[in-house]
Each structure stands twice: as structure tokens, then as C-alpha cells.
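## retry 2 of 3
previous attempt timed out at serialization; input unchanged, resubmitting
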Amino acid sequence: NVEKFLKKCIDSILGQTYKNIEVVLIDDGSSDRSGCICDEYANIDERVKVHHQKNRGPSVARNKGLELSEGEYISFVDSDDYIEKNAIEFLLSELINNEADVSACAATLIDIDGNSRKYLDDKDYILDTKEAIYHSMYRNTIGSVVWAKLYKREIFNNVRFPEGKNAEDEYIVYRLMANSKKTVYKGRYLYNLIDHSSSLVNSGKGNRDMWYFDAWCQREDFLRGLGYSEYADMTWET
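## retry succeeded, writing output
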């Protein structure tokens, strides 16, 4: 139900300087015109494919996108956000040039009145597996978010989003970083994050602490299993 934002989102993806892309749109049971807008784009651009399903939440939608996509690389754009026109070209270039498994960029946070502020750091990092896990937990760079990144597809071979849970990014970003031998972060502001009161992040706050608690319990166990006890011990630090 993001018809007010959806066209800007899709236009920003189809208008990328890197043209060889596949755009998978998942209509997760929208009751507004979002589903119709998706179909309109599929009718005018052969790069677009659409899947309509009953509302089952963001994790199921993201997993369905992974299932339907055929590309060598994966990126996520939330349907109320948008990306700069060179985002994919830049992320792909950094991934290839650095022989990395994941490349990430900075984001700008924009409120509904159009006011913006820098959301992630403008620094540059080349990270090994352990460093990338740390940055996903405690640094304002990789972060526990799946957007603003380009992944090699195989990074997801044994990772899927947890169905029936929100704050779904918190459950898997550290796992993706554990699968990445090298992650490159460049502080270029190429992802635009729209902050508005109807978003899932800003709604259902009573349940949000429960989701985070569950996700962090799983993260602690996972990190201990990898032998990263010092990071597991840091899980509950704020």
C-alpha cells in the first residue's frame, strides 16, 4: 500500500545508468493501486516481472523475490524508497574491482516534508568477514539493513528471511556478512530512505522490541557457533 511512493521508486530503478537489470516487484496483498501500478510497468518494460500474493509480510515477499529472480547479483529497494541513477553501476563496479562478495553505500534519510539528513557514514572501508559482521552490528556503515547493498547471489544460498517476523533484516544481515569473504563499503549517498509514519519500522512499536530481542538471541547463538565469542558477548550492549 505505497501507491504514493511506488512510481518514484520504480522509475529510479528502471532509470539506472546500468541497464542490464531485472526488476522483480512483489505485490504483497496491497489494497490500494500498488498492484495495478506494478502491472502497468510490466506492460511497458520487459525487464519487469510482477508477482501478486496474499499479504504475508515482508519476509515472505523478499524470499519470493529471491526465488523469482534470475540475476547473478541481488539488491533490495523498499517500495517507498528510491535510489540515485548511478547506484547499481557504482555498487557493481566496486564489487568487481575489489573482488568482493558484497558492496554497500551510504543512505540519506528523507522525511515526508522533504527534509533530509545523512543516515550512514561517508567513510570508505574494505572489510573481511569478521570486520563486516562487526560493522553490521555496531558501525553506522553496513548496518543491520539489507538495502543500500549489492550482493553476489550465492551469499543467499543458505540464508532466507524469517517468515512471520518483522525487523527481518536484523535476523539475516550478520549471516550474509558471515558468508562474505570481502565486503566493500563506500560512503556515497546513493540510497534514499523515506521516513514516514505508515512504514512497518514506525508501526507496531509494541511488538518491535520482541522482534529485536528474538533476532539478537539468534545472533548471539550464531556468533558463538562461529567462534566469535567476543561479538556474542557484545550482543546486548547499547
